[in-house]
Amino acid sequence: MKKINGNNLTFWLFLAPVLLAFLMIIVIPFFVGAFYSLTDWNATARTGAELKFVGLKNFTDSFADPAFLYSFIITTIFTIINVIAINVVSIALALVVTSKLKLRNLHRVGFFIPYLIGGLILGYLWQFIFNNAVPAIGKAIPFMGFLADPENLLLSKVGTSVIALVIVASWQYAGYIMMIYVAAIEAVPTSLYEAAKIDGVNAWQRFRYITVPMIAQAFTITMFLTLVNSFKQFDVNYALTAGGPATIFMDKPIYGTELLAMNIYRTAFVSNNLAAGQARAVIFFIVLVIITLVQVRINKKKEIEL
Amino acid sequence: MKRILIVLLVLILSAGIFFSCSKENNKAPITMMQNKPEIDAALQAYGKIWTGKSGTEITIKSVGGSTGADLGQQLRADYAAGEMPDIFIIAGVEDYKEWESIILDLSDEAWVEKTSVAFTKDGKVFGFPVAVEGWGMAYNADILAKAGVNPAGLTTIGAYKTACAKIDSMKAELGLDSVISMAASADMGWVTAHHNFNSLLSNGLPYGDLSVVNDLLAGKVDKKRLSEYADWVELLFNYADKTVLTTGNYDSQVGAFATGKAAFLHQGNWTDPNMASANATFDMAFAPHGSMSTPTEGIFVAAPSFYVINKESKNIKAAKQFLNDMVFTDEGNNYMVNEAGMIPAYSNVTLNPAGKLSKSVQEWAAAGKVYSWSQYYFTNDFRDQSLAPIYNQFANGSIGKVEFIRYMTEAFEGLK
How far, in Å, CA of B309 to CA of A223, rounded? Predict the structure, then answer.
């Protein structure tokens, strides 16, 4: 046998804590979870409840459940709107704070701070704004009376509740994405802009034909982050709408703004069917991996090297 | 191969740093989990007093109310994580079945003789009744007097219709936003699909009569009873404040009543602490749920939740002691009745709660005019995931009474 290489050992020793943590909290739970999705496991202390192997039943049941199919659709809709909203807002903010603005560092901090507030707190905070503060404004200002009409409360209808979710999620996340755009925009050589200016290029064209292609690698990251985050949205959903209001889908009354993560949570902990929840989480994982791989591939093609 | 061996060795070594063993001991701290956020402050304070006397640390966790997650969800998560509390709450037989194998037999405890409403199964006592609770239609006596409505007559749906119409026409004069404070948002499914639902199950029936429950569980729906019940739900929703009804939480629902903006409140005597903190000084009491055309004179009263002890607890002795002390020490009695404002379920406790709604529950109970709480014979899943969205849509106006009856019928037929 070969002697243990000193350098090698040091290398692995330094890596060990991270490797262990990664193994314990990501790799092992993932495979244990995948295993449980094939059983009828539930975390209660019923007598005579033993772990039984049920094959793919949890998966087929999931696809037969209108609530799960519906949450797929509503999550997709939410994700599309949310990705667009966050990216548009954060590019706009990034352009503002990279321009020659007074106190621009203060603005950067200001836009970034919502990201540091937890989603649950944000959810309850905005719930208060939508349900109490907005009607109060409607009552106080005469020509804004429509705001006080209960028919116009954002959280009272499914469609507008999704918009409310987008507003809160964008408000929280746009500052963070803005920082990535700021870094990318600042890395664009000013000489390009100067040359363009001399050629008589206007501001929109400078943005469209210089800034956008030059920050393409930032798009890869931001699209990935916003896509994954929107798809995994849970805490804001949980605190802001709690899945309500209800709706009818495939002739079954279900919760109208129950996004996928929340549907998985409810299947596991409200319906007390942890194995089925686990199966849905596996489906969720596979779908998410496919979507992000496609997205990264598309975005990568658009990147340019200087 | 060599490399894998090194990695393994390193992992085992560092694992030793991460994990340590815990020992059983007599002074092991105990944890209690309960689902009444309104008594949390009182219970925390009592927990400190008890720790001071007994020397055992007790941690009290409260979940429920408008925080979203309910007790069952938290217990399942904690059980899966191996952090099951030493004392926790079950509500009825469905919960009992869920935790059957870890619930300790408490038949030999001293408090058992002092109560008639402990949770028993097969002749053994398992659950310590937390309190006697009741709900009906809480009313603001001052507003009703001003409107000329006699609460004693509110026993049928007809009487409620007349009374609500009358109060509704005088809203401006009485300073009301709405007649009834009712909530049906996704957060508040427990008001509709748990409490209101019970009107369908037990209103007008002898105490403990499960005929309607058993029929529904078997998928048999009494069309007449359900359609009368739908009229009742419609009445409550029609006279409720739309904002509170469709998007409100517990605070906005109770707050509307406590500040005199609504004449009726669809809640129970657990709102007493909220009334006190909102400085609601008006007279209030419970009127029955007049959900049917035949008079129903009585409100829903029961000891609905029970403390149980986890068999796998590291300090069962302290957990038993904690429950006993609540019944047999002055501090414990003081906490239950004066601080938490609960109606004690124990005959040796001589104190009486000061809350007006609790007093009303005691009066109804003393007169024997009570109906059971039967909603716990249905699973949480059924009530929260199947029924609550139906009520929510009915409240939003996206479905009408005919569809409400149809979806309810379909839900029950699915139970077979």
Answer: 50
Residue B50 to residues A305, B11, B71, Cα–Cα distance (Å): 69, 44, 24
Residue A23: its chain B contacts at CB < 8 A? 11
The reply to whether B335 and B186 lie within a common domain is no
CATH of the domain at A98: 1.10.3720.10
Residues B53-107: tens digit of each pLDDT: 888 899 998 887 544 567 888 888 888 888 899 999 998 888 888 888 899 999 9
Quick: pLDDT tens for A78-120. Answer: 999 999 999 999 999 999 999 888 888 898 899 999 999 888 8
Distance CA B234, CA A86 (A): 41
B409 near A CB under 8 A: no
B174 and B284 housed in the same domain: yes
Q: Do A45 and B99 touch (CB under 8 A)?
A: yes
The range of the structural domain enclosing residue A106 comes to 59-124+172-302
* CB A241 within 8 Å of CB A215: no
Strand ranges for B1-109 from DSSP E: 30-34, 58-62, 87-90
Q: Domains in chain B: how many in total?
A: 2
Note the Cα B240 to chain centre separation in Å.
22
Q: Are B286 and B264 in contact (CB under 8 A)?
A: no
Q: Is the peptide bond before A245 cis (omega within 30 degrees of 0)?
A: yes
CA of B359 vs chain A CAs: smallest distance (Å): 33
Interface with B, mutate which of A20, A42, A155 (most B CBs under 10 A): A20
Chain B CB contacts of A17 under 8 Å are: 14
pLDDT digit string, tens, across residues A179-188: 999 999 999 9
| Contact (CB<8Å) A272/B10 | no
Same domain, B290 and B338: no
> Read out DSSP for A85-140?
HHHHHHHHHHHHHHSS-TTHHHHHHHHHGGGGS-HHHHHHHHHHIIIIIHHHHHHH
- Chain A residues with beta carbon closer than 8 angstroms to that of B390: 246, 253
| Cross-chain Cβ contact B392/A244 below 8 Å | yes
Report yes or no on A31 lying in a domain: no
Place of tokens 């009313």: B139
Q: What is the pLDDT of residues B283-338, one digit of tens each?
A: 999 999 999 999 999 999 998 889 999 998 889 999 999 999 999 999 999 999 98
Helix (H) or strand (E) holding B263, with range, is strand B262-265
The minimal CB distance from B99 to the residues A4, A44, A268 is found for A44
